[in-house]
Description:
Blueprint: E1 3-4, H1 10-19, H2 26-36, H3 50-59, E2 60-61, E3 67-72, E4 78-83, E5 89-97, E6 100-104, E7 108-110, H4 119-123, E8 125-128, H5 131-149, E9 158-161, H6 171-182, E10 194-198, H7 202-211, E11 215-219, H8 225-231, H9 240-251, E12 259-265, H10 273-287, E13 293-299, H11 313-325, E14 329-332, E15 334-336, H12 346-350, H13 357-368, E16 374-376
Parallel strand pairs: 1-2, 6-9, 9-10, 10-11, 11-12, 12-13, 13-14
Antiparallel strand pairs: 3-4, 4-5, 5-6, 7-8, 15-16
Helix pairs in contact: 1-2, 5-6, 7-9, 9-10, 10-11
The structure holds S-adenosyl-L-homocysteine and iron/sulfur cluster.
S-adenosyl-L-homocysteine binds at residues 117-118, 162, 166, 197-199, 219, 262, 264, 298, 300-301, 343-344, 385.
Amino acid sequence: MTTNLLGFDLAALADFCDQLGEKRFRATQLFRWIHQRGVGDLSQMTDLARSLRDKLARHAHVQAMPVVSTQRSADGTIKWLFDVGDGNLIESVFIPESDRGTLCVSSQAGCAVGCRFCSTGHQGFSRNLQTSEILAQLWHAEHMLRREFDQQERVITNVVMMGMGEPLQNYAQLLPALRAMLDDHGYGLSRRRVTVSTSGVVPVMQRLSQDLPVALAVSLHASNDALRDHLVPLNRKYPIDELLRACAAYQQFAPRDFITFEYCMLDAVNDRTEHAHELVALIRRHAASGLSVKLNLIPFNPFAASGLKRSTSQQVQAFASVLLDAGIVTTVRKTRGDDIDAACGQLAGDVKDRTDVQQRMASQRQAMIGGVPVVALSDGLSVGR
Ligand code: SAH
Ligand code: SF4
């Protein structure tokens, strides 16, 4: 087995070169070939000495995961399904907008948090993705799109860790991937343009604030602990007050002057105006310790096993009005693709229960016919669900 170079940030790649008895600075050349030029074939890296290329070829390779399907919607959104082995599929979504191109990236196959309203959560947890599997999503998407659009400069300007999985429960593999995204020799994205979304893994939020404080989105979804315990079971470990204190602490290091709170609107569960008033009180209480938030209301993408329903648009508006009247910046995520089951992790979830891998793949391909499930955000943290 040779090493997949997609699994390294620049420092680790320099260590790898060192171990091969090569100069560390060779890693920069190599890193640029891979991430900036999208070249995976070592023999094509023509400014590297042949002897180095030959040595590398004996020890290393560059490889993304097999693509099971590429779905496209009329509005330009593209969704890829990757096969990460043992019957596990993960997804990435590209959402083009006039001023940016956002890629929504997965961090795990399945998820252990088990939120009630999330189809990835209903699947259960399969495994953490490796750094190479996180970065390969960006590598594949960026360079495929550049070729397709015949474009030299970057197509993906923003990354959101909002695909399948809880990124902060896979921190060791996430961190080098984030570093490569930010590296000037890699994708050169600013910290503002890389967002980690979390259900609230408090101690790891603290570590991220010290290691690499990128933009943060927190999946709140409830205005009190009893409700959040039920919807986001991780709340039993890190309750709301503790989470909001961690957000205020993160904000001191964050690249934006607010933390985004995501709130999935569930009919008659968390969408009443009483909840909105409770949320206002909660946010005000923590504003005193320096917390500044932007609230993003997400219409629920329904799936049968959840037994939950999407809030009506009147209810969403009424809820948003309470927040706006209280001076809290609030946006409502635009949705599309309802007709084709757009919920989080839904396509990959559909095939999860079957035992035979081939059967899963065949049925997955079958399920693909028909279009792309899409949700786009109104505010730039664009994401497909
Ligand atoms: N695990 C992380 C990131 C992935 S989920 C997190 O929970 O933040 C990304 C976002 O999609 C979260 O805000 C999540 O609550 C939301 N989401 C999950 N399932 C959804 C559904 N069925 N409808 C709408 N939003 C959903
Ligand atoms: Fe996991 Fe996020 Fe889904 Fe919750 S919403 S189950 S944390 S992926």
